[in-house]
Amino acid sequence: MRDAESLFTVDDPAAYGAYRRASAGAFAKCGARFLVRGGHRQVVEGALRPRAAVIGFPDMAAARACCDSPAYRAALVLRRPCALADLAILGGREDA
């Protein structure tokens, strides 16, 4: 399994909800499942954005396909005006 980690600063929660609904189809089509979304966290070194998510994908190709899909690109149009994000695809997790 490969994971995508996203860190967000959401300026408009209602508009961000529209992005979440729009992106759900792209995630489902690529076999993604949310491993972490929101929740309590404690930063022990450095700094993070206020919101975080970790999304599991079957493999690196599926994660990349999701990011490049027309459905996800359409969802980004909704997210970009209301939230800043840092996104990384992380490889190397083989135990899930």
From TrEMBL:
Residues 8-92 form the DUF1330 domain. InterPro entries: Dimeric_a/b-barrel, DUF1330. Pfam families: DUF1330. Coiled coil: none annotated. It comes from the Bacteria. PANTHER family: BLR0684 PROTEIN (PTHR41521:SF4), PTHR41521. This is Uncharacterized conserved protein, DUF1330 family. The lineage of its organism: Bacteria, Pseudomonadati, Pseudomonadota, Alphaproteobacteria, Rhodobacterales.
